[in-house]
Amino acid sequence: MRKAPISGLFVVLVVLLFIALAVYVAVRGYFLVVSDYPLVERIYGFVFFAAELFVLLHGFGYFTNVLALSIKPYRNQQAASQEQPAVAILIPARHEPKEVLEQTLLACRNLGYPNKTIYILDDSSILSYKDEARELASRFNVELFSRDGNRGAKAGMLNDALAHINAKYIAVFDADQNPMPGFLQKIVPVLEADSRLALVQTPQFYTNTEESRVAWSSNIQQAVFYEYISEGKSVKNAMFCCGTNFVMRKDALDSVGGFEEGSVTEDVATTLKLHMAGWKSLYYEHAYVFGMAPENLGSYFMQQNRWAMGSAQLFRKAAGLFLRLPGSLSPLQWFEYFLSGSYYFIGWAYLILLSAPISYILFDTPSYFMDPSVFMLTFIPYFILSVLLFYSGLEMRHFSPFNLIKGQMLAMISIPVYMRAVVQGVLNISVPFQVTPKDGAGALSYTQLVPQLMLWVLHLASLCWGLLRIYYEQDISLFINVFWIGYHLFLFSGLFYFNEE
After folding, report:
1. In this predicted model, what pLDDT tens digit does every residue of 158-187 receive, in sequence order?
2. Which of 47, 125, 247, 408 has the most Cβ atoms closer than 10 angstroms to its Cβ?
3. Which element (helix H / strand E) includes 145?
4. Domain 87-204+242-293, what fold?
5. Is 367 exposed, middle or buried (0-12, 13-18, 19+ CB in 10 A)?
């Protein structure tokens, strides 16, 4: 797909957005500090402002990536090397359906790169899956590696296998990822051209998007990440490994002790070690690998729980490393790792932000401590610019606003999942490694969705009460808060849209 370049007008609007953001934050902070409200309300106001700053900071981070691409445009690296060094293709598998693994093996066998060896890394504990992996390895004439126990989950399995592999590069594909025939022929020369390049990460797109609404919308979320965000990280040498669809220099991996086994997202944690050791990473944006999206809410929540927990573990680790070794990464790299590690804290931040209009409607508890006209004068310019630039920027990449909204709805109903997962990650609570199911799209029982239902009911009740108050009181503050409650209720209603058979 040919991408539209970032125009000069778009860049100017991004700069204006940053100015509007600075003005809004300054005015908000001023009125919060000088306000004369009861102590409890002031404490709540500060907590709300902190949550708001967190969300604004992540928005700022997104648009800095957009701006970075206008200053230093992202380019796919090209290399003319004709060398074909040995590549070990690793396919970690644990309790994977036979037909899924079979498709991946077929795709890997068809890679147009002669100097390759394919390995099934079977970490299954159930005999039937072990037998299927053995039968597939024999049929496709590939290597089979297995072990006793499950130490370190996926990362441990990769490390155990790498101890017996001497290839110059390793390519890792999850068991449901199917590379195109030219994948290695494009990626390996890029690594050959730069001896300090440790990692080339490629995007992940789903082929089963028509199977369910969850699959379609999760694909949109993935695609948004692999557009401006990944490209922006790449130009800052801060792109991290995403666990599949990548090629890595084995010497670089060995130099940092292999894959990080202390995190459920071993990929990002390992990239942090590589960057701190002076290695480089690159995002290569062409879609050369296609996989399977989660098809129901249960599978999606399991995937998001794993990612959120791993990101929180990364945040804890990166914070400690920053305090001890601040010079080991550039400021831009640290900032990108902060954004990546803290992203899923957005569940707690959103819960606080959701509470503000409800608290005002039900209990007259203020959160802004400023005149509504001042709020609208400072917030609306930022809000309009951010929405306009976000949707128009992605529309240049051929995303429709309607599909992006569905992605936001899916994220909104994941708030309870994010909240639980980041607590587990920060407190380093051990949970078993879970593979995202690939066996169809059944609806969840609503008894399994009690937190989401409670939030939906609370918003519906607050909306009704708010509309009643508007009818009798005609207060502009009520209009503002009812608007936000209605918007949040709309997003939470995605619960019924996505929980399908």
Report:
1. 999 999 999 999 999 999 999 999 999 999
2. 247
3. strand 143-145
4. Spore Coat Polysaccharide Biosynthesis Protein SpsA; Chain A (3.90.550)
5. buried
